[in-house]
Amino acid sequence: DANKKSQYALQTLTTWLLDLEREGTIDNELATVISSIATACKQIGSLVNRAGISNLTGLAGETNVQGEDQKKLDVISNEVFSNCLRQCGRTGIIASEEEDQPVAVEETFSGEYVVVFDPLDGSSNIDAGISVGSIFGVYEPSPECRIEDMDDPEAMMQKCVLNVCQAGNELLCAGYTLYSSSTILVLTVGKGVYGFTLDPLIGEFVLSHPDIKIPEKGKIYSFNEGNYQSWSKEQQAYIDSLKDSSQWGGKPYSSRYIGSLVGDFHRTLLYGGIYGYPGDAKNPNGKLRLLYECAPMSMICEQAGGAGSTGFQRVLDIVPTKVHERQPLFVGSKWEVEYLESVLQNKP
Ligand code: AHG
Ligand code: MN
Ligand code: MN
Ligand code: MN
């Protein structure tokens, strides 16, 4: 009969978005923005996979507002993301790790979503062919700062900054794409977390991880222990305790760290455990950026039943004061993050 599910009924990102539209969870404008992000990720994935062949490894010769030496692919991925978001006509403002300031998009003709993104995460891994990713978040424009006076650049800039500096609680959509053994797009629109694997034969993101739930506890911790010496004594005590197998029935934790937030986070989401980038003596707020790294990952983790914390507060509650503000980040299994918080806060 016509309603029997055909064995060839493919659930793709496109059909998943249409289902969400049909049930009224998202509107057509947001579906269009998400589709344009998926297109950007397909393009970036193909550039990343062929970087060594098309002379796209190595440095661009510029530094970004973070003070980092930009890789060629940092710059190109940023352009790909920006172009796709402009062309979709539903984006009002974009903020990127690779742009000093947020940018108002002229090509908007319907829907004025605010999109924040890290176009290429873990880019120090590119030249070694180790997994990298892209991270994104989508907000409604904040009503009190509608973009009217496009001709007053200073006022415009202020409004753009206000539009992107919203707490993670306001995120309509958060997601990332992992460029690794597979290209996997993982996202949430506030009703659970879904993963789509790119089928290169048809160029579609196919549903591969419906309704991801992170294990309540896990035996993997993911920290750059090279910074151990400059961590607080509570932070050091936390890591020491994970290594003390007598506390864990004789089975110590395993350490896994590849230096790409997207890769380390994706493994944590599926296997359980905890990823952390603590503050330290040199950088009390750590290294990761709240707007387009900490907040989107925290929303995804919470939607999967986990937690996202600075060690002292819930990441999603923080209202950014600056576009590129950094915050310490601990994300993963709820039990693991709560244990970390209890040690950092000297709670029994
Ligand atoms: P990005 O490449 O977007 O600047 O982000 C790099 C981040 C994150 O991906 C990763 O977890 C972290 O930097 C690694 O930092 P360390 O090399 O200091 O461990
Ligand atoms: Mn960077
Ligand atoms: Mn990053
Ligand atoms: Mn980046």
UniProtKB/TrEMBL annotation:
Pathways involved: Carbohydrate biosynthesis; Calvin cycle
The protein's Enzyme Commission number: 3.1.3.11
Reactions catalysed: beta-D-fructose 1,6-bisphosphate + H2O = beta-D-fructose 6-phosphate + phosphate
GO molecular function annotations of the record: fructose 1,6-bisphosphate 1-phosphatase activity; metal ion binding
Single GO cellular component term: cytosol
Start and end residues of each Fructose-1-6-bisphosphatase class 1 C-terminal domain: 214-344
Ranges where the Fructose-1-6-bisphosphatase class I N-terminal domain occurs: 12-210
Signal peptide annotation: none
The protein's enzyme class: hydrolase
Lyase as UniProt keyword: no
Biological process annotations from GO: fructose 1,6-bisphosphate metabolic process; fructose 6-phosphate metabolic process; fructose metabolic process; gluconeogenesis; sucrose biosynthetic process
Keyword line: Carbohydrate metabolism, Hydrolase, Magnesium, Metal-binding
Cofactor annotation: Mg(2+)
Self-association state and partner proteins as the record states: Homotetramer.
Family, similarity comment: Belongs to the FBPase class 1 family.
Protein name: fructose-bisphosphatase
Residues of the full protein shown: 69 to 416 of 421
